[in-house]
Every structure is written in C-alpha cells, then in structure tokens.
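Minutes, methods subgroup
Present: GH (chair), OT, SY

1. OT presented the first of two proteins processed in the latest run. Sequence and structure tokens recorded below as shown on screen.
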Amino acid sequence: MHATAAVEEAITLSEDSTKSRNAGDIYRLIYYDRQSSRQIISEKLGLSLPTVTNNLNQLKADGLIYNAGSFESTGGRKAHLFQCVPHVRYSLGINITRNHLSIVVVDLDINIIAGKRMRRPFCDTDEYYQFMCREIEKLLDDHQIPREKLLGAGISMPVIINADQKTISYATVIRVSHGIYERIGRHLSCPFFLFNDANSAGLAESWFSGSGKTMVYLSLCSSVGGATMDGMNVSRGSNNRSSEFGHMCVVPHGKRCYCGQYGCLDAYCSEKVLSDFTNGDLKQFFEKLKENDNQGYWNIFEEYLDHLAVAVNNLRMCYDCDIVLGGNVGSYMSDYIDRIRQKALALNPFEQNGDFIRVCHYRTEASAVGAAIYHIDCFVKNM
C-alpha cells in the first residue's frame, strides 16, 4: 500500500514537473520571439494543441502573457497572437563612472521605465553608496515601482570583474577596494552583481537588436573599452578581460597611455582627446564642429577619426562582424558615420560597403541598461 502511494506520488510530481517545463518553454518561446500563436508554438515545441492551449490559459491566468491581437493564418481562420506582459517584473541598472552616476529601471522588454543621470564623482566610501541608494529609493518611489516586482540590480563599472561577479581583478580608471561588494551590500537591499561597463553596454545593444549575430561594441568614453557579443552573450575570454580594445596598439611608440604603455587606442580615441579642447565638455566640442570658421576643431576630429578607422578596420579583420560605435563619443557619431565609414573602407582590401559600422542605439544609459539585463535573463530562463 505504501509502495503504491509512493509510486502515485512520484507520477504526480513527474506530471507537475512536465507541466511546469512546458509552461516555461512556451513562455520563453513567446518572450524571445516577441510574440507567437498557438499553432506556431505547437510546431516549434512539438506539443499538442490542447497542451499548448492549457498552458497558455494558465500563463494568462498568472498574468504573465496577454492576447495581443490576431492575424490571418494559412487555414483561413484568424490565429491569436500572444505576448509577454512586460511590467510583471522590473530590474535595476546602475552605472558608476569616474564622475557620473546613472540609474535606470527597466521592464522585461528592456524598456526604460525610469532613469536619472547625475554628476557625482566616484569615491569608494559608505557615504557614496548611501547617496546612491537614496537616489534609487527616490526613483522607485517617484515612479511607483512595487518593490516586490523588483528582481534585483546590476552595477556596471570601468573595472575588470572576476567570474563570481562580486570581486574586481583590475581597476585603474576608478579606485576601488577589494571589499566593494560587501560595502555596497551594507546599503543596497536587493540582490545585485557587479559587471564591466563596456560588456554591459554591448549586452544592451545586442538585446535591443535581437539579431543573435556576432557583434563588436566599441565604447568611446573617458576610457576606451569594448565587448564582443556571441549572439546574446558576452564573450569574456579566458581571464575575463576579453575586448579591452582600448589597449590595442594603434601607433607603435606613440602617446603614453594611462596604463603605462605607449600607442594604445585609449590615448587617441578616448572622450578626453576631444573634450579637453572644450574644458571637458564633449557636447560643446561637437557644437563647435558645426560652427563656421572652426577648422582647428575639424583638424582635431579628423585625426581622431583616422585613429578610430584603424581600430575599426582591425576589429573587422579579426571578427568579421558589425562594429557598433558606442559610449559618449558614439552617441554623437550619427552625423559623421559616413566619414568614418569612408576612412575605414580606405584601409580595408575586402569591403565595398561600410554598413557594418553603425552607431549605438543607447546613449549614456547603455551600461546601466545592460547591467539590468542579468536579472531579467535569469527570470526568463528559470520560468
């Protein structure tokens, strides 16, 4: 009798597990495809239509998906489309730079629901993290974000992060202590992890495009960094320091870089190379470019583009994929994209078209958005 009961219980648990797995698979298919129908789900997952219907009804009852309209199917009858409800959960993204702090709240569709960017020089102190957490709480309150819907936070920084996403192996742009994770944890009440800023920005761009293709993101900020995207995933390398493009040598025996070497891309294409001519104001530099009789600024920018073209061409040769220009300088490059394409093509023996070079979608908020994606990715994968 006891054996029979145990078998029946095992069968019930197995059935529940299968139902849960089917619901998770259906949810993920709808999420990654942006929308889907019963028929398409049945075909892609190899599930019967009644099984799909039952799981769709349960996902709707749980508030996870909704009916997004219909379209004409091959059978002549209209097929219902389903999409995931984006505001079921939220994730927090924080980007810390040398002089600025950015905070965003994104929903499951990576829409920025709330955000702020403020000038706040970084200092690895309790006072700084207390300020950061007060700003987070204020942002959540101002936009009425329910705390129970918050999955967690990602914090991006211009440092190299170890695989545990909690400890830092290398930092020169900002000064941090070995116990930074514990120090932040004393003030931040939700689960969080640390991320490299350029990797986070690349992740945001890759998720936005949704193409799943290999992509290189070149971050042109106060320091130069980057990310190599293998589909929707960051390629981190054997030592978690892949894509440190800022330290590629573009001019042998050239200018001294802050890392101590000479001729690094960072010494020629960081934001400071331009903004130093306008008292640190990058926006003003690009405004000067559009004024008449400013040939001096154009000479500076042309030299900047020459070195950038060398880097872009080298990256294209290495990876044979799209190159996305991002960071603070990248956000101004739309008006000059044809010029950089021309310069890069002049160095390339294979290409006839420079469309592989494009400008980032996200501007100053890219790293914060990318840091927020981690918890969303975990939520979807664990459904």
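2. SY then presented the second protein from the same run.
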Amino acid sequence: MKLLGTLAFVIALLLSVMVHEFGHYLTAKRFGMKVTEFFLGFGKRIWSFTRGETEFGIKAIPAGGYCRIEGMTPRDEMPAGEESRAFYGASTLQKLIVLGAGSFAHFIIGFLLIFSILFGVGVNALLSDITQVSPNSAAAAAGFQPGDKITSINGKKVTNWYEDSQAIRDSQGKELTFTVLRDGNEISISAAPTYLESDKRYVLGVVTKVGTKREGFVTSITESLRATGVLTRESAKALVALPTKVPQLIRQTFGDEERDPNGLVGVVGAARVSGEAVGSQKLDSTERFGTFLLLVASLNIFVGLFNLLPLLPLDGGHMAVAIADEIRAFFARLRGRPRPAAIDVNVLTPLTMGVFAVLAILTVILLIADIFNPVSLNL
C-alpha cells in the first residue's frame, strides 16, 4: 500500500504539472499566440504527436513540463506574417493572464480536491446519533435512548454536532427542546442540561457516534473556498519563513537532528509521506484516501503560490517584468513620450541563473534529506 500511495502521488503530481501547462496553453491560444510545443518532462523526446501547430508529448526526465509560446522576448524571431502572434506583442493584461493561468490552475485543483473530500469522500466527524446515555443524567431523565438521532435544538436544525451542541454548553441549565428521530419517527423531548463540575460545563449526558460525514453541495463549495483560503495563507507564511528554515534543513541533512514535520520537504519526501498515509494501519480507508487528497491539494496550493513569486525564471518573475513594462509606459505617456521598448528578459539572465542555482542547490539538499533522513508523520 505504501508503494501504491507513493506512485499515486507521483502520478497526481505529473497530472498537476500537465494542468498547470494546460492553463498557459489554453489562455495563450485564446489570445491568438503561437504555441509550438506542449511537453511533460525534459530531455530526450520519448513520444509525441502533432495537432495543428502544436507538438504534444512526453520527455525522458519527469521533472516538470513546459509550454513553448513563441516570441517571449523581442529578440525571438517569428515566422513571416505571424509577428502579431508573438507573446511580447500582446497587451499587458493578456500577458498577465497567460502567465498567471498556471498558478490559477493549481488553486483550482486544490479547491476541487478539497471539495471532493467534503462532498464525496467525507470526513470523520462527531455525529448527532446517540450511542450511549449516561445513567442519572438529564438525558436519561428526559427519556433519550441509544439509537436516537438529534435533528434540531430549540428549532435550529443540527448540521454540525460539534458546533450545534454548543447550545447545550451555553444553556445555563435552562430547558431545551430537542427534535429526535427514533425508529423513523420524529418526537420532541425537553431536557435541562446539568452542570458537570469535573468538566466545568453544562452537559446533556449522551455519547454520540463518530462517523463519516459528507457535506451538502453548497456547504461543500463554501467550506472548500474557506479551506483553500486557509491553505493559501499557511503557504504564504511558509514561504515567508522559508529562508529561516534552510539552516535547520542543513543541520538535519548533514547533522544528527531529526527532521521537523513542519519544516521543508521536497517532492521525494512528500511522496514518501503520501505512501505512509495510504499504507497506514492506524487510519481507515476513508481517512487514508482523504489524507492523500489533502496532501495533493496542499502541494498544489503551495506550488501555485510559490510560482507567483516575483523571481525569474518563475512565472511570477515574468509577470513582474510585464508589470514593470506597463509602469514605464504609464510614466512615458504622462511625459508625452512614446512607449519605451519592452524590457529584454535576456538582459536579466545573470539574475535568472542566480535564482535557478539557489533553487537547484535547495532541491539537492532536500533530495538528500528526504532519502537519508526522511520526514515521518507516524501514521
């Protein structure tokens, strides 16, 4: 099962890369740009086919992918008669949409995976089905029975027992009216919660079932949007803290420190964690599948945000250049001057190579750490 989980993660990662590049492809084609290649992987071509003007295929090294849009810089030559289809000739808004489409695709993937957990797979939750009634409790005195399902409290429908049962804790001992489903029939039961000194709160005196809960369609959408926002904020915090995590990673890689589960993890480490989750005997099948989907969703949201960093060669770096071009054009218009030539990205090659070198070194360190001192969630 661990191997299956690891392979599933790798496949999910490759599919995520494909969707990322497909975002670039669709928007570029929509704006009439010339797209000549769409490949998964790098290096030697393994398999390909041509459709229209675009060659689609797979290359030997499964370390990402790319979508080749012609005319990325003014230095790039375009076929005669197709100069208007160059990327550099598009409006700034069109450039930003094409460049940001890949990251947007990652956020969509994350949202859809979270939605599939809430609406399809379900999550383990405290339900309102009563499994035990405590002797000498308010529930016992009122006539609650094991097998009852509480459907409303004081007329408010129970949709989330953990949250809705707060009405019991806040009752101050006042009588509450419960609607209960028993043997297919709805009945009404009134009970006044009693104060439990050991817990310092008011209780009804029932134990409810833990089970799989699936949200409704609308609730799943709103909760998925909220969860996507939470994961985006946490990813942003992680990116801000990334420089401070590097020294710790080095110590954990080349020293004797144990890996921090909340520290930096590479693709290999994430794949191992996925395998651990899928193969865990401590989790049931729903929890294993849900954990796997959540891992893939979290990775997509983090990658989507990371790719928006204003650093070349990331998409965010190219977006920053496009915005800088537009700012320069704005001030030129204020001065009554013609639009200046677009910034030549090739001039920034030393900066690009510097960022690439830092990312490459970090990737190697993460690879060594994930192999020789892997993260474990003890699932």
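Chair's summary of item 2: Residues 1-34+70-122+216-379 form one domain.
Next meeting: continue with the remaining queue.
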